[in-house]
Amino acid sequence: MVDEFRAVFRGHPAGVALVAARGAHGPVGLTVSSVASVSAAPPALSFSLGAGLSARALLDAETFVVHLLHAGSVDLARAFATSGGPRFTADQGWMTLPTGEPALAGAGVVMRCRRLHAIPVGDATLVAAEVLEVLTRPSGGQPLVYHDRAYHRFDG
To answer: Which 8-state DSSP code applies to residue 132?
Structure first.
């Protein structure tokens, strides 16, 4: 059943996001393909996290930044999806917000969020978050999509 379930979702395209926060030992972040809009009033979103170290550090953070990535961010998405990948390097374009969270200057969309709920579900955690600020808006660039274990440009 697990293999069947994974195969089904490999065939389901999803937008790609990078979630980042200030952790106890520095910035933490990871790539997710499960970001979804939950509510417009108040603005809220959700995503799921696995059980890795970065996920645990993100769950400990009260606030974090969700970046909706554009098609030019494939290398960044791969780096944050790979254990030990290069993260928070100067050439990736990171800055620190006045509130302390790390943020990507060149991301398609940047939203500062506050965790509302973290609900364990099987081997993952479902996170619901209030969007406190939309720091950048879509620039009209093509979104980055994850499908069948690969990143793709969406030319819709």
So the answer is: E
| Separation of alpha carbons 85 and 77, rounded Å | 10
Which amino acid, 57?
A: A
Token duo for residue 137 = 């808006």
Residue 153 identity (one-letter amino acid): R
| DSSP state letters, 126-155 | EEEEEEEEEEE---SPPBEEEETTEEEE--
Angle at 48 between CA 45 and CA 54, to 5 degrees: 115
Residue written as tokens 């099987």? 122
Max distance between CA atoms of the chain, in angstroms, equals 46
Give pTM, 2 decimals: 0.93
Mean pLDDT by 10 residues, the chain (156 residues): 90 94 95 96 96 90 96 94 91 94 89 97 96 83 89 78
Q: Which residue has the tokens 């996290």?
A: 49
Residue with tokens 């417009």: 40
